[in-house]
Structures are given as structure tokens and as C-alpha cells.
């Protein structure tokens, strides 16, 4: 990651957190990540086959991975819940010394995620990171529904995983008129100002439910509030630079809020 982007992430988060680690401390903690044990290979499609999986096949695959995580009883289990933005977070780029269980599905919505949370019931995560909602908005779901579903997701996780730290992450912006994604017209019909408004309501949910909120939106936005093109491949999904920036934000956040406990 370019030094400027790394410093940008640190400076932004320093304004919001106390006793954060130094850049040197963060840099020293970035060896290759510990990979979560996987289900038997016979049950896992190869990379080419994964692109062809149906939604239900993805759910079945993630259920198998959750079963393995529950059986192995990882003491440092961290979970990612979300859509394709979470799904394609490179495993080797996730913050190190954690057992990461990625439960993202491409095209996922708040309703879909709510319907499959039970897959995690037998796991014992130390932390659960949630990022969901952009597909709802692209598909025309009302803001009130998106927010209500997020609240239900949070309350379900709090009830089933009382010892886990729940982190609600903001919805990221898109690149508006600079987007090249195939659904560009739908992005143009979705003002980023609307996403900012929903993020404010998600922050309020986090405060009311006594969970944590990680506001990534300002890190990824340009002066117009749109997703910076260097952080994206198509104006919606993240590029390698985008994942490096998210990785840095997660590392700072985890060290400040979780590792210190």
C-alpha cells in the first residue's frame, strides 16, 4: 500500500479511537494470516466451479465451513458477514493471528443474510463483522427495510452469541458517473448521499444496541462523497488497493478495540 493511503487510514481512525497502535506496531503484525481449517476437499468446489454456484449452493458451502469452525472450537474466531465485497476479501490480506470465517455471498441482501444467520449458531466467534445493504439499495429496497433488517441481524447475533463482539460496518459508497459496473444505471439512480443517511442510522443502531460501529465510508470516499476509483475495479467492487485500505482499518480497529481486552 502506498504510504499516503496507509497514513490516511491511520490518521482518520486516530481521530475516532483512543490508544491506537503506532504504524510501526501495525506493520510488525502483518505476516501471512493463519488460515481457517477447511472442510474435506471432496465437498469444496474448485475456484472455477465457485463462479457457477447458485445461491443455495453457496449457503450449503458456508454451512459446511461453519460446521468445521464449530467443531474445531477456535479460540480466536473472527467472522465476516456480507455480500461479494466481503466474499472477495483475499484471505491472505485479512488481519493476522486470527481464524477468519468468511460468510459472504455475492449478491447478498439484508433479508438473505438474516435468513442464514442460524448457520453460525454453534460457532463461538470472538468477533463478528457485518457489512450488508448495498444490494438491497441497488434492487430498490426501501431505506426503512434495510435499516430494520440490520437491526434484526444485530439483535439475533447478540442473543445467540452473547460473548461475541458485534461490529456493524458502514455501507461503502460507489463511484457514481465514473463506475463501469454492468449495473451502472442503477448506481446512478442511487445517490451516495442516501447511503450516508443510512450509515447515520446504522451508527445509531450500534449505539442503541451497545455494539461497535466501524465507519469506513470516509476512508473510501473522494471530495464528492463517491468511491475513489483507485479503490475499485468497477465503481462498486473493491480493487487490491481497496482491500489493503480495509485491511489497515480492520487491523487498527481490532488492535484498539478487541486485542486490548
Automatic annotation (TrEMBL):
Taxonomic source organism: Lusitaniella coriacea LEGE 07157
InterPro entries for this protein: Ester_Hydrolysis_Enzymes, SGNH_hydro, SGNH_hydro_sf
Name of the molecule in the record: Lysophospholipase
Domain SGNH hydrolase-type esterase: 97-243
Domain of life: Bacteria
GO terms assigned for molecular function: phosphatidylcholine lysophospholipase activity
SUPFAM superfamilies to which the protein is assigned, alphabetical: SGNH hydrolase (SSF52266)
Amino acid at each position: 500500500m502506498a504510504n499516503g493511503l496507509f497514513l490516511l487510514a491511520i490518521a482518520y481512525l486516530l481521530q475516532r479511537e483512543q490508544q491506537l497502535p503506532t504504524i510501526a506496531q501495525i506493520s510488525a503484525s502483518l505476516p501471512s494470516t493463519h488460515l481457517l481449517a477447511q472442510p474435506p476437499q471432496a465437498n469444496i468446489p474448485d475456484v472455477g466451479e465457485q463462479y457457477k454456484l447458485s445461491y443455495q449452493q453457496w449457503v450449503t458451502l458456508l454451512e459446511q465451513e461453519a460446521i468445521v469452525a464449530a467443531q474445531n472450537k477456535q479460540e480466536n474466531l473472527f467472522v465476516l458477514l456480507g455480500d461479494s465485497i466481503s466474499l472477495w476479501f483475499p484471505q491472505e490480506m485479512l488481519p493476522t493471528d486470527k481464524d477468519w470465517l468468511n460468510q459472504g455471498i455475492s449478491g447478498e441482501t439484508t433479508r438473505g443474510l438474516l435468513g442464514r444467520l442460524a448457520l453460525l449458531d454453534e460457532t463461538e466467534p470472538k468477533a463478528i463483522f457485518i457489512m450488508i445493504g448495498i444490494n438491497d439499495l441497488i434492487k430498490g429496497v426501501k431505506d426503512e427495510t434495510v435499516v430494520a433488517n440490520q437491526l434484526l441481524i444485530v439483535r439475533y447475533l447478540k442473543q445467540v452469541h452473547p460473548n461475541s463482539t458485534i461490529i456493524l460496518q458502514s455501507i461503502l459508497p460507489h463511484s457514481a458517473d465514473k463506475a463501469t459496473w454492468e449495473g451502472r444505471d442503477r448506481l446512478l439512480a442511487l445517490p451516495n448521499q442516501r447511503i450516508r443517511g443510512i450509515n447515520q442510522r446504522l451508527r445509531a443502531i450500534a449505539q442503541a444496541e451497545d455494539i461497535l460501529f466501524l465507519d469506513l465510508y470516509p476512508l473510501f470516499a473522494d471530495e464528492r462523497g463517491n468511491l475513489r476509483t483507485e479503490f475499485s475495479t468497477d465503481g462498486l467492487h473493491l480493487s487490491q488497493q481497496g482491500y489493503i485500505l480495509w485491511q489497515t482499518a480492520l487491523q487498527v480497529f481490532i488492535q484498539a478495540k478487541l486485542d486490548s481486552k
